[in-house]
Amino acid sequence: MGTNWRGAAPTVPIEHLLTDLRFAGFWALVRVLLGWMWLQAGWRMAQDSGGMHGDRLAWIVGIAATLLGIAVILGCLTGPAILLGSLVVLVAITPPALPVVALQLAAVVGLVAARRSAGWIGIDRWLLPLLSEWRRHHKTPD
Questions:
Q1: Which long-range contacts (C-beta less than 8 Å, at least 24 apart) are formed by 28-32?
Q2: For 56-74, what is the mean pLDDT?
Q3: Would you state the pLDDT for residue 3?
Q4: Are 80 and 50 in contact (CB under 8 A)?
Q5: CB–CB of 104/70 below 8 Å?
Q6: Under a CB-based contact definition with an 8 Å cutoff, are residues 62 and 49 in contact?
Q7: 56-74 and 78-91 are packed helices; what angle lies between their axes, rounded to 10 degrees?
Q8: Cα distance from N-terminal residue to C-terminal residue, the chain
Q9: Which of 36, 51, 77, 79 has the largest CB neighbor count within 10 A?
Q10: So where are the chain's domains?
């Protein structure tokens, strides 16, 4: 581990970057940029596929990427949306897009690792506590 200019250990190790809610704004920015790219790419793919009467697989992948992009932008079920979105991106990959996809997958890894703070500025801040409360009340008896 490196040191800062005073010779002391750095004040922001990687675990703080991933878990500290003070970095929620940074992760929200990364999340919104990633979601916007997926939204645009998905919408373009859905439009270019000819709709339901054209290439149906491309249309379904485009609609899925569009919806996942919206979920990621809003911070709604951020972890699952990002994981599903990365799978959709891998399905729709084209060779000229490899550098962009590599950056997107790096953002995905960071957002999944920082999932607690990544959704803090978004719907997850309220949705996840409600879901955990619902799960607690609806457990099946053992």
A1: 28/75, 28/118, 28/120, 28/121, 28/122, 30/107, 30/110, 30/111, 30/118, 31/72, 31/73, 31/75, 31/78, 31/82, 31/111, 31/118, 31/119, 31/122, 32/72, 32/73
A2: 89
A3: 44
A4: no
A5: no
A6: yes
A7: 150
A8: 47
A9: 77
A10: 23-137
